[in-house]
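JOB MANIFEST
job_type = single_chain_structure
chain_count = 1
residues = 151
[input]
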Amino acid sequence: MASRAEGASAAIERLVGVAREAAAAEPSFAAQVSAAVPALLDALAADPDLAETAMAREESEGRERWPYREALASFAPLLERAAAEAGMGIEEPGPAARAVIAGLTAVILREVDEGRGEDLAALAPELVDLALSPFAGSKTAAEAMRRHGRG
């Protein structure tokens, strides 16, 4: 039987894979984000147990850890490329990308913690807008979501 930490790690790996696979098929950062975020939300909504497992807190060496934060943070480079591609003139996009990731994480975690994991897919338009707006503007975010039939 796998430990709780191993289960969370496997769940996170699966979710990151779903999002990365969705993004890989897209040509631009806006399309990648508008594909990855809904794919992640769909996977979480389709399997509430997976969501609970992936978003679990664990204790390691007497400290709490949240492995899902590390997994979501792995998407920061995509958002940093977004800033460069959009020509927004952001010299150091890292802090903005990390702030966006923190916002996405907080919303997803709140929904899962409050038993609304099955409804996550409905948040895709707002969360894509949250992810893209700082780098490309709300208009680009809305256009990207429309291309994916969600906005």
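[summary]
The first strand starts at residue 58 and ends at 60.
The beta strands are 58-60, 63-65.
exit_status = 0
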